[in-house]
Amino acid sequence: MVFQNMQNSSDKPASLHDKPSLRTVFGVLRSYRMRSGMGAWVLHRLTGLMLVLYLPLHVAGLRSLQDPAAFEQYVTLYRSPLFKIAEAVLVGVVAFHALNGLRIMLQDFFFRSDRHKMLFGVVMVLTVLVTLVAGYQILSPYVAAFLFQ
Amino acid sequence: MKAYAAGWLMQRITGAGLVLFLALHLWVQHMPNGFLATADEYNRIVAEFADRGPVYEEALASGHLREALDGEHVITYSKVAARLQNPWWKAINIMLLLFGVAHGLNGVHNVLRDYVHRGRLRLIVMGIASLGAVWVSVVGIRSLLAVGSGL
User: Fold this and answer.
1) Cα B22 to Cα A31, A61, B5, B92, B93, distances in angstroms
2) Which residues of B touch A134 (CB under 8 A)?
3) Which residues in chain A have Cβ-Cβ distances shorter than 8 Å to B30?
4) Each residue of A12-41: pLDDT tens digit?
5) Measured in whole angstroms, how far is the alpha carbon of residue A129 from the centre of its chain?
6) CATH number at residue B127
7) Domain containing B115: what range?
8) CA distance A138 to A131
9) ipTM for the assembly
10) CA-to-CA distance for A147 and A141, rounded, in angstroms?
């Protein structure tokens, strides 16, 4: 049981040993102490779950790799504006999860706890930067086409 | 080694690998560079589509295939197939897939341990997630191996 706390980041909330119900959900939410460490933990979970749901969709779509005509149409579907916006959001989700994951690994080994808040700030700044730069590359042809058509 | 520690270590090893593989993946498939077709290149490919038979003709007519916008970089089958001719790229993509599956499955396991305390329910959800992981691995690897091999 000693290792149970090692697996998760130190800022994990107390688990409630109740049956699933709306009351339990609110109870769990109230038990979270909303500070930046908690925010990092919740965001890491949410982005992780989003990526777990996205992976099967992505692999299902890529079955079209077995048929060139189907693959070209799959790619074309993903070139419609709504999918492009989703692509930029996806880059942001991946960037946060990757950068925050690096922070968790780094601070397990190298940083004193009084530096954790500063590190999380760095994670957020880098996430926004990566998302803006990649989002610009992904969306600019579409914005230009929309504005100057 | 205790199971908790093994899971903790695996999440860090696969996580570190995924940071590298995903950065590479996002770079070659989502950023404008030579791994994608430029708008001009892609529009030349689209012009050839009409000669490839009725499936392409119908897709062009219904808008399921369409030309690139100015400045757009497009993923196209020939570029992907050319890259995956290289066995290193094939290996990297298979590693990306398997690391992603392992990391995701272990992540789901961690969430279940935190929130689902009924043993049987946890076992059922974990069983479904495991079947999904096997499906994603098998289907993903099959697709990767099929590229360029005429399957």
Assistant:
1) 35, 18, 25, 10, 10
2) 26, 30-31
3) 87, 91, 134, 137-138
4) 454 545 566 777 777 777 776 666 677 888
5) 15
6) 1.20.1300.10
7) 3-36+75-146
8) 10
9) 0.90
10) 10
